[in-house]
Specification:
Blueprint: E1 2-4, E2 13-18, E3 30-45, H1 53-64, E4 67-77, H2 83-101, E5 108-115, H3 122-134, H4 141-147, E6 156-164, E7 167-176, E8 189-194, H5 200-212, E9 229-234, H6 249-269, E10 277-285, H7 288-299, H8 302-309, H9 316-323, E11 335-338, E12 345-351, E13 357-364, H10 368-376
Parallel strand pairs: 4-5, 8-9, 10-12
Antiparallel strand pairs: 1-6, 2-3, 3-4, 3-9, 6-7, 7-8, 10-13, 11-12
């Protein structure tokens, strides 16, 4: 199994991106991911009770249909808190793309990211879609991964290649996210494509497991957004013997976990205004749920995050956050180890010595630049 920090599309997939004018900057803001043949789809969505129109549309379609050909993504406008008009705009976006591609609109997933509460400029998308379709190519992924960005400073991309018998499998993922990052899920979009032949139940479970081990183990500011989704399309183009729970599932699951974890780490590395990448490992618990709860309590502590930014070795911030996690902790059990704070990458190790379970969470420091970015974001 080999990991590459670049996007290489699997067999049967192409991509494209254009600047439609949604972003005033004139940067790329409309992306398309396309499969030559119907692909099995599985998605995980934000647990926020306010959800954007694209998510509502996708959830409705996924109940009746599990085969998809395309994903269209716009940045610069979230199409959220826009009521029925927003839902109609999402539906119309899918219809316009379906007509241009010659496919059914129900075979299209829609995603948006950007400002909440503003009407989607559908006229700009309508004019751009023909150009978007004409631009489809293998190399288009290198523009698509930039078109989905908002406050990101670099594109997030990862590819894993591995073999099943004599078949070479590819899993490729791109993501966006830098702020409003918290578990279940955050202001992030992740789009993963693979040419593997796999059953729907196995694909569903693999994504849920991968998300729990990656995107649900990162936090930047503890804030959850409204548009977040992780999706996998599997088109079976490589024609391997089908993967199910009894055949090669662990191998596929490991590869998908690796792609998702790399993308998740990149989101934290690009956290808005951050100067530190922090790994928090909590061990010695009876179960991993307790360990993760403590780790997230520390990771979401503003006092802890600002102390790391100031390179202030005040371990009391860690003690206080752990004690406030809701997990029963005795002072004599708690052991803390912190790597040198002047470095970019910081390791925090917390142990309670009451079991063998552990959890790892990734976060960033909290800086004045974070405040500036979000004070001016409109």
């Amino acid at each position: 199994m080999k990991l590459y920090h670049k996007a290489t599309l699997p067999e049967g997939f192409t991509a494209a991106a254009v600047a439609s004018g949604i972003k005033k900057s004139g940067k790329l803001d409309l992306a398309l991911l396309y499969s030559d043949k119907p692909a099995k789809a599985t998605c995980v969505f934000t647990s926020n009770k306010i959800q954007a129109a694209p998510l509502l549309l996708n959830k409705k379609n996924l109940k009746a249909n599990k085969l998809y050909r395309a994903i269209i993504i716009n940045s610069g406008n979230a199409n959220c808190f826009t009521g029925q008009a927003g839902l109609k705009d999402a539906q119309e976006t899918a219809r316009l793309l379906a007509r241009a591609l010659g496919i059914n609109k129900k075979n299209i997933l829609v995603a948006s990211t950007g400002i909440i509460g503003k009407k989607l400029p559908l006229d700009k998308i309508k004019k751009a879609i023909p150009h978007l379709v004409l631009a489809i190519s293998k190399g288009g992924i290198n523009r698509a991964n930039k078109a989905i960005m908002t406050t990101d400073t670099f594109s997030k991309e990862a590819t894993v290649k591995f073999n099943i018998g004599n078949r070479a499998i590819t899993i490729c993922g791109i993501a966006k996210g830098a702020g409003m990052i918290a578990p279940n899920m955050a202001t992030m979009l992740a789009f993963i494509m693979t040419d593997v032949n796999i059953t729907q139940p196995a694909l569903d479970k693999a994504l849920r497991t991968a998300v729990d081990n990656s995107f649900n183990c990162i936090t930047v500011d503890g804030c959850m957004s409204t548009n977040d989704m992780a999706v996998v399309l599997a088109n079976g183009a490589i024609k391997n013997p089908i993967i199910d729970f009894n055949n090669h599932f662990k191998l596929f699951n490991s590869a998908l976990n690796l792609v998702c974890l790399e993308l998740a780490k990149m989101i934290v590395q690009d956290a808005e205004g951050s100067s530190k990448f922090i790994k928090i490992e909590v061990g010695g618990l009876k179960n991993s749920q307790e360990a993760k709860k403590i780790a997230l309590a520390i990771a979401n502590s503003n006092l802890f995050k600002t102390a790391v930014y100031g390179e202030n070795p005040n371990f009391g911030r860690i003690v206080a956050a752990a004690g406030a996690s809701g997990v029963e902790i005795k002072e004599k059990e708690l052991k803390i180890k912190v790597s040198p704070l002047h470095k970019k990458n910081i390791d925090i190790q917390v142990s309670l010595n009451r079991g063998n379970a552990s959890a790892i969470v990734y976060t960033s420091d909290l800086t004045p630049e974070y405040v500036k970015i979000n004070a001016e974001y409109n």
